[in-house]
UniProtKB/TrEMBL annotation:
Keyword Lipoprotein carried by entry: yes
PANTHER family per record: ABC TRANSPORTER EXTRACELLULAR-BINDING PROTEIN YCKB-RELATED, MEMBRANE-BOUND LYTIC MUREIN TRANSGLYCOSYLASE F
Domain (Ionotropic glutamate receptor C-terminal) ranges: 44-265
Official protein name in the record: Polar amino acid transport system substrate-binding protein
Cellular compartments annotated: Cell membrane
Keywords assigned by UniProt, alphabetized: Lipoprotein, Palmitate, Signal
Entry similarity comment: Belongs to the bacterial solute-binding protein 3 family.
Signal peptide: 1-25
Domain (Solute-binding protein family 3/N-terminal): residue spans on this chain: 44-266
Gene3D superfamilies per record: Periplasmic binding protein-like II (3.40.190.10)
């Protein structure tokens, strides 16, 4: 009798444990399903930018991040039905930020290069640009050959570095100083610590408008290029959602309106 009672107690205990496990698994599954639905409802794209790259993405006098690419990213996200978060990053580590998953897109005057094609997926190009050389307005420099023996400023790990390295003048300059941002490079130029800066034409045109009479461009440019959005390798699904949104922005005039706001004309590639 004692043996029967003991066996009965064991069976009852096991039954209670099984019911508890089943209920816990059901609750977990329910919670997981709920989280999945929330993720779908509130999906957010994290866009990595250099927040000192006017007029593409930069901080205004109120310290708010604004710019052409910022408006483009927000408009594209709206068409995709997702939220967008603008995340300032160290531009030197942009591909690492993307591949680690800390950001979803590199979108801030990001130039298409063969080297970058090996690291990221690109959308179709949306804007043309050139790498140019800027100096002070009263400088006697006027052409690329005049850079021989001069000190050059440049943003580190930018396409400007590639353009300079690909030009024969690179072997004739005195030295190259790399900066975290173009703003720092231009500051040193104005202070006389460098003789010229290699920079995106889109960027320097903005500063020449803001600081009239301060800068001038050399007659020759270094290299033409095109901007596109960078997506993590292997994330074809995101690219396939983003590109149609960009195409629609071209078709309905959204991109043209944003371009006119920042450049005074429609410069977006169709």
């Amino acid at each position: 009798m004692k043996r029967f009672t003991m066996m009965l107690m064991i069976v009852v205990s096991l039954f209670v444990i099984l019911i508890g496990c089943s209920s816990g698994a059901s609750d977990s599954k329910s919670e997981a399903g709920s989280d999945t639905e929330k993720t779908k409802e509130k999906e957010t794209l994290i866009v990595g930018i250099d927040d000192a790259f006017a007029p593409m993405g930069f901080r205004d006098e109120k310290n708010e991040i604004v710019g052409f690419d910022i408006d483009m990213a927000k408009a594209a996200a709206e068409k995709m039905g997702v939220e967008v978060k603008i995340q300032p990053i160290d531009w030197k580590t942009k591909e690492n930020e993307l591949n680690s998953g800390r950001i979803d897109l590199i979108w801030n005057g990001y130039t298409i290069t063969d080297e970058r094609k090996e690291k990221v997926l690109f959308t179709k190009p949306y804007l043309k640009n050139s790498q140019v050389v800027v100096t002070l307005a009263d400088s006697n420099l006027s052409k690329l050959d005049d850079l021989a023996g001069k000190k050059i400023g440049i943003q580190a790990l930018s396409s400007a570095v590639d353009a300079l390295n690909a030009n024969p003048i690179k072997d004739k300059i005195d030295s190259t100083t790399e900066y975290d941002t173009n703003v720092l490079a231009l500051t040193d130029l104005k202070a006389g610590r460098t003789d010229a800066v290699v920079i995106d034409e889109v960027v320097i045109n903005y500063y020449m408008t803001k600081e009239k009479g301060t800068f001038k461009l050399l007659d020759e440019s270094l290299a033409p290029e095109e901007y596109a959005v960078g997506v993590k390798k292997g994330n074809q699904e995101l690219l396939d959602k983003l590109q149609p949104a960009l195409d629609e922005m071209n078709e309905d005039g959204t991109a043209a309106d944003i371009s006119t706001k920042w450049f005074g004309e429609d410069k977006v590639l169709k």
